[in-house]
Amino acid sequence: MSLFAIGDLHLHFQSELKAPGQLREPIWKDHEVEFRRNCEKLIKPEDTLVLVGDHSWGKKLPECEKDLEYIISLPGKKILLRGNHDMFWDAKKTDALNQQFAGKLFFLQNNYASYQDYAIVGTKGFTFEGPFYVRMNKIVGWDAAAESAAIHLIDREMERLRISFEAAKKDGYNRFIMFLHYPPTNIMERNSDFTVIAEEYKAEQVIYAHCHGEHRFHDSIEGRQHGIMYRLVSGDYLKWMPLQIL
Ligand SMILES: [Fe+2]
Ligand SMILES: [Fe+2]
Fold this sequence. Notes:
Blueprint lengths: L2 E4 L13 H5 L6 H12 L5 E4 L13 H8 L4 E5 L12 H7 L4 E4 L4 E3 L2 E6 L8 E4 L2 E5 L1 H27 L5 E5 L12 H8 L4 E4 L14 E3 L2 E5 L10 E2 L2
Parallel strand pairs: 1-2, 2-3, 3-4, 6-9, 9-10, 10-12
Antiparallel strand pairs: 1-13, 5-6, 7-8, 11-12
The structure holds fe (ii) ion (2 copies).
One fe (ii) ion binds next to loops.
């Protein structure tokens, strides 16, 4: 039995694809064919696959039906995290999605999933990515209004993440794998509210996605920091091969 993760499928079986990177870069050409092939080679029915956000370009659920059907048809148990592009997933309606897709997909938000003696916890997260003002290769300031909006979003996401940890803890779990769609830190930081909560609950790993393209792959923490393993799992970074987490 194994646990796998990958993010950012950005499927568009029913929606118009406008993202220039996805239209232009060879890694995205027929990526859903490549990804399915890799999953079928790697993942057994008893395994679990966590999809770390940005599943579909569809804006409403009916526009995502085929994308979700594709995900359902992949091998293993599928757990979905919310990404910034998942417009079909109203955070307040996660319970309704879990009822609608019961036995097929699990939507991770204000709840947790179990994997052996681990609790899989997570939320979308948020990273303040600027704009930063740079002089002589040093960051000398940033957009204060954007920063205060980011603080608000981060506080809300932290609340959701704590609900997820506490729900698992209440049920007796004390081993955690923490998932975020956004990277836990921006390019200036080594620590953030998200690294602090991961340390507080002694999460063993923090898995995140969202970073696309060679120039963004190393924006945040990779490898071990303060005893926690941080891993980036964006699909284009992994070349559509799910990463084994456990
Ligand atoms: Fe993405
Ligand atoms: Fe994203």
